[in-house]
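PROTEIN DESIGN WORKSHEET
SECTION A - STRUCTURE
LENGTH: 272
TOKENS:
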């Protein structure tokens, strides 16, 4: 469960990015993140755990420095690293935490249930902003999409779920959304438990989710919001593997194509 802040307005932003956000100084998404974290006063900690490439963390660290922030790459490669008091201390100094892309199961199996994961939840609840791109976006929610099939149809075996960091339990995030045709697996994830909204985030697009739950869309693509609030029946409990999940009895999730914009806020749960 997400950590409880002293007051709702105290919580930091949660910023899932759909991947391929452009690792350039003029990146609108990363520039907005640096601004939110304090611009020249920003202290951004980069967590490259998901990536198997040694250059991923330093690349983001150097980019944030070019943008005027102070930045450090926090090397977390094993669960033992997550129990290192010095690692946790470094995170405590951050005004922003950035989780890179790669393999989200590396994130969940290394960070899950450790002092680092607890620290990230607590820091976010006390005002530290947490952004994640690609795999880093998937893990911010309580329920994480760990894998699945491409395509438009939800199927029983079409999605794999794992526990996420739990910064929010109100959304399930999928990334590279339209580029990799992931509507089916997002619908399948929501069919297992239609409590959360689904956010399908395109590449080079980010949702800046404020402490109040409103979402500002930044970037060049779209975010598809799937709201299952009116779902009255799901066949997920009895369909056979690979069989399509049947949308019946008024199942009408609303997919809203939110054209990216840098100034207008959108509700994470769309108005009716």
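SECTION B - SEQUENCE
RESIDUE ASSIGNMENT:
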């Amino acid at each position: 469960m997400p950590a409880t802040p002293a007051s709702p307005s105290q919580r930091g932003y949660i910023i899932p990015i759909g991947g391929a956000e452009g690792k350039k100084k003029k990146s609108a998404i990363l520039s907005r993140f640096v601004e939110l974290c304090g611009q020249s006063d920003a202290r951004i900690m980069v967590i490259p755990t998901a990536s198997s490439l040694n250059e991923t963390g330093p690349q983001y660290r150097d980019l944030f420095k070019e943008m005027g922030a102070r930045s450090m790459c926090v090397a977390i490669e094993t669960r033992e690293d997550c129990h290192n008091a010095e690692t946790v201390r470094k995170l405590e100094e951050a005004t922003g935490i950035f989780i890179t892309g790669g393999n989200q199961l590396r994130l969940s199996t290394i960070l899950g249930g450790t002092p680092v994961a607890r620290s990230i939840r607590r820091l976010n609840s006390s005002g530290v902003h947490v952004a994640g791109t690609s795999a880093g976006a998937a893990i911010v929610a309580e329920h994480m999409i760990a894998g699945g099939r491409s395509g438009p149809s939800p199927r029983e075996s079409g999605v794999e779920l794992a526990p996420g960091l739990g910064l929010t339990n109100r959304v399930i995030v999928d990334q590279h959304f339209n580029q990799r045709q992931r509507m089916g697996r997002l619908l399948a994830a929501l069919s297992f438990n239609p409590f959360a909204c689904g956010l399908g985030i395109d590449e080079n697009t980010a949702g800046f989710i404020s402490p109040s739950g409103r979402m500002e869309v930044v970037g060049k693509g779209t975010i598809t919001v799937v709201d299952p609030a009116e779902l009255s029946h799901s066949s997920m409990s009895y369909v056979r593997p690979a069989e399509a999940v049947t949308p019946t009895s008024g199942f009408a999730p609303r997919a809203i194509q939110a054209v990216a914009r840098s100034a207008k806020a959108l509700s994470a749960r769309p108005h009716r």
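SECTION C - NOTES
The chain has a mean pLDDT of 87.
The helical segments are 28-37, 56-66, 79-82, 85-92, 104-111, 115-125, 135-138, 183-192.
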